[in-house]
Amino acid sequence: MQRSVLVTGANRGIGLAVARAFAAAGDRVTATYRTTPPPGDLFAVACDVTDTGAVDRAFNAAEQRHGPVEVVVANAGITRDALLARMSDDDFTGVVDTNLTAAYRVARRAVPAMLDARRGRLVFISSSVALAGEAGQVNYAAAKAGLIGLARSLTRELAPHGITANVVAPGYTETDMTAAVDEQQRAAWCARIPVGRPAQPAEIAAAVVFVADAAYLTGAVLPVDGGAAMGH
């Protein structure tokens, strides 16, 4: 059955791969972006996920085009890396607002229609650093770890109503964001991955589609990291 799917931060990288995977499966996809729309023929809507009004307008557009949103993938995120002693308040709060608080905004907007339908899927894109930590990323790791508490609390609230809430936690993935990293750092990351290589965005997307299809999976954290965060 075709579903109305909304993916935030879907103009590149993991978000774009996720949006394309759902579209390839026959779902009706709304791809949100902040400044640059995604390539191709996806239905795209501008949305700054730190703005409650913009989130509402994006959902309105998705509902008018595709009907009530049945699957939400909260993927939009940013990094502002720095060691703790050098990290500004804005660097910390900005990352938390975009990576964690925005996911709350998106879920809050999605849930009423899901409750009416007595079905829905909430998928939050976290990171392996939420499980293992990473020097220079206390803001990013804290925000991504917060998604786990968010999803598990929503599971307690929403599972009786047919709504699941899960977390997919990618590891090092080949995206525009990681392409800026120098070769030494890339080699160090790969050395910590049992599989020995970074993920491709399509590999993360496959896990997201699986989670969105699974009716009895909720409150789960699915690491897709080549084994990098084993034991956490």
Task: Give a verbal description of the structure.
- Helix content is 46%, strand content 16%.
- It is α/β, with parallel strands linked by helices.
- It has a single domain, classed as NAD(P)-binding Rossmann-like Domain (Rossmann fold), CATH 3.40.50.
- A seven-stranded parallel sheet has the order 3-2-1-4-5-6-7, with helices on both faces.
- It starts with a strand and ends in an 8-residue tail after the last strand.
Distance between the termini: 36 Å
Percent range of helical residues: 40-55%
Q: What is the tally of helical segments?
A: 8
- Main sheet? 7 strands, parallel
CATH homologous superfamily designation: NAD(P)-binding Rossmann-like Domain
- Order of strands in the sheet with most strands: 3-2-1-4-5-6-7
Q: Find the count of extended strands (DSSP E, 2+ residues).
A: 7
The CATH topology is Rossmann fold
Which overall shape is indicated by the principal axes computed on the Cα atoms? globular
The CATH top-level class label: Alpha Beta
Structural class assignment? alpha/beta
Radius of gyration: 17 Å
The appropriate CATH architecture is 3-Layer(aba) Sandwich
